Amino acid sequence: FPVTICRGDCLEVLKAMPNACVDSIVSDPPYNATGHVWRKGSRKTGPQRNLIIDSMKGQWNESEIDTSQYSRILKTECSMALFHGIRQTISVTGFKQIDSFFVVKKTPPPRCRPGFCSAVEIAEIYSRIDGKRKWHGGFIRKNYWYGTQDTASNKKQYGHPAQKSLEPMQILVDSLTLPDETVLDPYMGSGTTGVACVRTGRR
Description:
This protein is α/β, with parallel strands linked by helices. The chain is 19% helix and 26% strand.
């Protein structure tokens, strides 16, 4: 199945895409810097905020994750999945949240102070306010995946600090689209969504 990789500023690439050209968006935008600004090994704590990466400077810039083009490039009948941080929400104009999907880590990373460690990642499922939701995951499907994410070895091998496991991305792609349909990941990261599409027969 054909896979297209567009290299560039994702916000500019989205603007250049034609109307109603994708069936779903399954993506893991940069998050988990919510409430913090990271600078060369040190952390400066600040108020809760939504952030995106400035890929040119390699630093975190304070900004809303831009979803303004999603409504235009998605087809009328669609569902999409967007991951976000525990204390972060993503508002998408023209869409409503209809469900949630959880990635539960078997071996979550430790934390440096007493308290709960972060063992869960959340993806919200959206559909158009004025359109019909799409669901192809059967009558009932569990809303979580439980397993191990080998972040340390992935970072060493692929150079990405937060690579998603393939299995949960395949579940999302398989549940929200049909074979031969087109899936978009505006924040490609290490490309796990693309691999999930190839293995499940999506474009």
